[in-house]
Amino acid sequence: MMLTDLSLAGALRGLERREFSSRELTQAHLEAIEQLNPRLNAFITVTGEQALEAAEAADRTRAGGEAAALTGAPLGIKDLFCTEGVRTTAASRILQNFVPPYESTVTAQLKRDGAVVLGKTNLDEFAMGSSNMNSAYGPVENPWQRRGEVARRVPGGAAGGPPAAVAARLPRGATGTDTGGSIRQPASFCGIVGIKPTYGRCSRWGVVAFASSLDQAGPLARTVEDCAILLGSMAGFDPKDSTSVDRPVPDYRAACGCSVKGLRIGVPVEYRSPGMSAEIEALWRQGVDWLREAGCEIVDVSLPHTKYGLATYYIVAPAECSSNLARYDGVRFGERVEGETLDALYERSRAAGFGPEVRRRILIGTYVLSSGYYDAFYLRAQKVRSLILRDFSEAFQRVDALLTPTAPSAAFAQGEKMDDPVTMYLNDIFTVPASMAGIPGLSVPGGLDEAGLPLGLQLLGRPFDEESLFALGSVLEKAAGFTHLPAVRAGAAS
Q1: Which of 207, 329, 424, 444 has an alpha carbon 20 to 30 Å from 267's alpha carbon atom?
Q2: Residue 55's domain is classified under what CATH number?
Q3: What's the total number of domains in the chain?
Q4: At what angle are helices 278-293 and 466-480 packed, to 10 degrees?
Q5: Closest Cα partner for 406 from 446, 448, 357, 364?
Q6: Helices 380-395/309-324 angle, 10° precision
Q7: pLDDT digit string, tens, across residues 66-83
Q8: Within a domain: residue 471?
Q9: H-state helical runs in 273-426
Q10: Is there a domain that residue 33 lies in?
Q11: C-alpha span between 394 and 251 (Å, rounded)
């Protein structure tokens, strides 16, 4: 077995047993990135020299018997997390030369626990999109392909770089952020595991903001256990983030493999959307059967305001985007394009710095916040958001978790659906409601469609009950036996 084939947990065991060094492990991953990144475009910035230095430091730490939870583990960091001394672009031209003088809390905690950072991964610009076709640094290719086809497929978005990289065996795991499904949907498209924790579980300090009431950091990795290991380091209270929740971080890894017998699992009737493919419907039924066989009780539940989730999201998120991105004006932040007047400087800087999707969302957000429309749109959307949260709260009085599909389709080809923004937005139909409610969601690969592309199952849980999701996710993972590999990966012909 190649070093890049190991899971995060397997690599940590190998490091502990001195079967290989962190430098050897890191070098293997850097070689894989050198081989495949020109095609996949999963990394925007590769920090090879720094990674090898960190790996050598990790080896010295292990030799001294003082290893932490992630000592020597090579990871990718979504290029939305500020990293001290390393360029952070948010995949936008307006931040193409931004080098932060500080470290985000999440990445600081990963480094505290010994992680080795391989570089910064690609994404839709400012995390706005469902395909990773909106990056100023070019699209990311999904390492999975349909059988018998060479058409390149999207990895999902907005965090398309991290899951594509993890699926291709470039890092051991990666950080992501989830605003409306940007961890879970691409995890499903790329055949890996991803969890959006409860809002407030991971600090947002040092993460470039899109929609502040929705953005939440979380991990992507190859297995449920790997995600549990990463979340254990990423989570925790941060006084620098006013939305951070001060409560202990459980041992998520210990929850993996725990018995789920007696847990009540809700199946929301509203998630049976019109036009859902027979394959996704069948996988959903299979997931229900797997949990029933593990001793769970299956209960039908109703989330009546789910149908308003997407429309509500695309009022709230652009409104917050419009507010957050106002700072990028060429004066306070961002690349500057000079103009004859101050207004001209603003206009030229923002026109040159922002891509079409970001401009679209800023305009929508500015419109719904404008005088005469605030009450009609934004205020009403916030009221509907409260109803969505109430639906989940009432459901969780009857059940311990919910099971749904993660995405309405498998990964589509680059160029498909691109002409219709509304069709693109529908990719998040199953993930957005949980984001609006701030509850945790875990996506686990459940199988392949008839063309050989991965499909995911989504577990939704009570606030701060990620442990139950890891336990249930481990059951689904074991039952699915998902050992399929993408066509493009480290050690395979590209």
Answers
A1: 424
A2: 3.90.1300.10
A3: 1
A4: 110
A5: 446
A6: 130
A7: 999 999 999 999 999 999
A8: yes
A9: 278-293, 309-324, 342-353, 356-369, 380-395, 421-425
A10: yes
A11: 27
